[in-house]
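A quick aside before the break. I want you to see a complete sequence-to-structure record at least once, exactly as it would be stored in a machine-readable document. Don't worry about memorizing anything.
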Amino acid sequence: MTDNVPDNIPDNVPGNVPNGILGNVPRKLVVLDMAGTTVADGGLVERAFEQAAARLGVEPGTPGHAEKLQYVRDTMGESKISVFRHLFGTQERARLANSAFEEAYAELVDGGLVAPLPGARAAIEELRAAGHTVALTTGFARVTQDAILDALGWRDLADLTLCPADAGGRGRPYPDMVLAAFLRTGAVADVRDTVVAGDTAYDMLSGRRAGAGTVAGVLTGAHDRATLAGHGATHVLGSVTELPALLAPLAEPS
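That is the input. The structure line, written in tokens, reads:
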């Protein structure tokens, strides 16, 4: 179920490509989000946030709790420390909240509550077998990313894994993790030959700001088709399992 986004992206936006299957245009670096794109989060982010917020005195049902939770939902994909900095005002309180969040999320992961999205592992393996270099990115801290990778048995699945700290500290919607993947792997000579795929508006923004030639939204996570399209998706897919076919060259005419 591949839906092309309407032609509402100006031609002068870096990385803009025509809608449709990519044909023989090379796209050899693929930067994939984790939670909501390749990993089934199952509401764990919200559960971990509620535990973190409670530690800072924000209990469910109290003034401000619903507003803060909605902000977490709206900013899915962003670096969590940045989210907490906005919500709690000071760097010290943000660090306390982030530490509590990462601890709570790690406990949920250790409890076996994280799982791969159906077909995600096979899609990544298919991409690599086709010659693509694959990077997995996250807005979580490295310790949480590693816990997820270990729980899924994904340590060696991708060519590279990145968290915001690996790219100077800035997560999405900044382009830094995409550009870090471009620089570290050396997989392509032109950033326009990079593919970014994710389930959030911030995934789309980070890909467009980096100049990636293909920015694919997937409908297995936080945001819907309209939101992904409105933030720059060149394609919207049902899931990451459709990405290998999107990137495969068209068959030679007979």
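Two observations worth writing down. The chain is about 40% helix and 15% strand. Residues 91-110 form the longest helix (20 residues). We'll return to this after the break.
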